[in-house]
Q: What sequence folds into this?
């Protein structure tokens, strides 16, 4: 048999024990309890592990938060399985009993109940259980936990980044709205500026045209307009064009005769 004895104690007070075979294992375990070194300042509240040799057996000890867990196993059974056994019973014990309950408990307070747990766990580890497989599974579980924690942290970090992206999107949307409104205002101002420029250019062109026309006519353009009307009236008479010219020429001669007649009369006198 691999593990044949197990004990749980607070300092030197045995709280629960189980022995699968007759012998002096309990006496050796009590001597170990009495001679355990006091925990150092860095070990208080922590965990300490050690092993003692007695004939063909090894007594494996684990001390955690003032509670001592001891098991005895054949020396050929190795150390891995006994320490895995101690971890298992430590987990079961701390889950079943609180610190205050353990601190105030008298000797053998939990023996009736927890000795059955010791027996069951001892049989489990002593009947060819693959301790390496259990350790491997526990290691895989630990790795899965680590990966899950990392994934949770990434999800939380991603959530924060999504919130930042949403805030940036809102800011970009507001900036785009302001840019669009400013673009409309600039477009309106440019349109009015171009309209004013067109008005000024048209005014300059009209003024220059008027000034060029005034060089050949009076500033009121009455002579040019009158001459245009007379020319248009002359063309409108059609076949009487030559008659109109003769009449105009006769009228000019008559006017000159009236101007020259008084001068001739003064000379004759």
A:
């Amino acid at each position: 048999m691999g593990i044949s004895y197990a004990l749980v104690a607070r300092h030197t007070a045995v709280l629960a024990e189980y022995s699968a075979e007759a012998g002096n294992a309990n006496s050796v375990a009590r001597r170990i309890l009495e001679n355990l070194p006091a925990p150092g300042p860095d070990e208080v509240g922590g965990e300490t592990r050690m092993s003692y040799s007695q004939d063909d057996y090894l007594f494996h000890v684990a001390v955690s938060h003032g509670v001592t867990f001891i098991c005895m196993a054949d020396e050929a059974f190795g150390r891995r399985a006994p320490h895995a056994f101690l971890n298992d019973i430590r987990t079961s014990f701390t889950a079943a009993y609180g610190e205050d309950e353990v601190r105030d408990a008298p000797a053998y307070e939990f023996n009736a109940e927890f000795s059955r747990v010791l027996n069951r766990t001892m049989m489990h580890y002593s009947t060819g259980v693959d301790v390496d497989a259990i350790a491997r599974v526990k290691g895989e579980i630990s790795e899965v936990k680590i990966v899950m924690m990392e994934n949770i942290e990434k999800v939380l970090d991603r959530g924060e980044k999504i919130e930042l992206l949403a805030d940036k999107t809102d800011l970009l949307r507001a900036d785009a709205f302001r840019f669009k409104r400013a673009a409309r205002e600039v477009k309106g101002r440019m349109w009015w500026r171009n309209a004013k420029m067109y008005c000024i250019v048209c005014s300059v062109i009209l003024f220059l045209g008027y000034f060029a026309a005034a060089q050949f006519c009076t500033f009121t353009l009455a002579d040019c307009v009158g001459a245009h009307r007379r020319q248009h009236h002359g063309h409108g008479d059609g076949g009487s064009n030559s008659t109109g010219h003769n009449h105009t020429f006769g009228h000019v001669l008559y006017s000159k005769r009236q101007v020259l007649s008084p001068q001739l009369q003064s000379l004759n006198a």
In short: Confidence is low (pLDDT under 50) at residues 238-257.
